[in-house]
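Duplicate of #3305? Posting structure anyway:
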């Protein structure tokens, strides 16, 4: 297969332009189609004619994998290898899609609700972009965010999350490390 060198240069220019101005609607629709295909694929893997291992998984059985994939993303960031980071972010995204698929099957929530929740949260957390608040620099953004958290009672949730992490992380970390050492032998 031969590639057209002009086409490669044009593609690079398009990518640079997107980085300068943000995502285009064409990029968003391509990403949307790819994401929808991933969601559909996970549904098929968990379906009646899918993969027995995937069908057997629960939120609880996937805990160690979620943690392991998170650590692998961190390692990829530390390595500075963009391709490795893209691969590991894909693995982490799969965990989100996997958990959402399980929840959908249980009638608890869907991937659409996950996306809508984070979208709403980002808009709420950026009143300097989507509202009337002002923030001239990152320090002001953080100050505004702390005031929003206190106003919403989110600080209590943060305390609970910290307690949960301290109680569960060591067990899950040990499991992930054991699993990882078996895979690298």
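Output from current build:
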């Amino acid at each position: 297969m031969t590639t057209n060198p002009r086409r490669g240069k044009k593609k690079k220019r398009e990518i640079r332009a997107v980085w300068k101005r943000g995502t285009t609607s064409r990029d968003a629709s391509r990403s949307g189609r790819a994401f929808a295909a991933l969601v559909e694929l996970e549904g098929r893997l968990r379906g009646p004619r899918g993969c027995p291992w995937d069908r057997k998984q629960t939120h609880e059985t996937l805990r160690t994998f979620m943690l392991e994939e998170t650590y692998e993303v961190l390692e990829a960031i530390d390595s500075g290898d963009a391709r490795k980071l893209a691969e590991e972010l894909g693995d982490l995204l799969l965990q989100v899609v996997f958990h959402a698929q399980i929840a959908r099957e249980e009638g608890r929530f869907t991937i659409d609700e996950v996306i809508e929740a984070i979208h709403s949260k980002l808009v709420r957390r950026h009143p300097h972009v989507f509202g009337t608040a002002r923030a001239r620099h990152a320090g002001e953004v953080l100050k505004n965010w702390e005031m929003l958290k206190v106003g919403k009672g989110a600080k209590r949730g943060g305390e609970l999350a910290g307690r949960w992490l301290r109680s569960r992380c060591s067990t899950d970390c040990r499991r992930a490390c054991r699993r990882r050492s078996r895979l690298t032998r």
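Confirmed duplicate; merging threads. Residues 154-183 form the longest helix (30 residues). The chain is about 80% helix and 0% strand.
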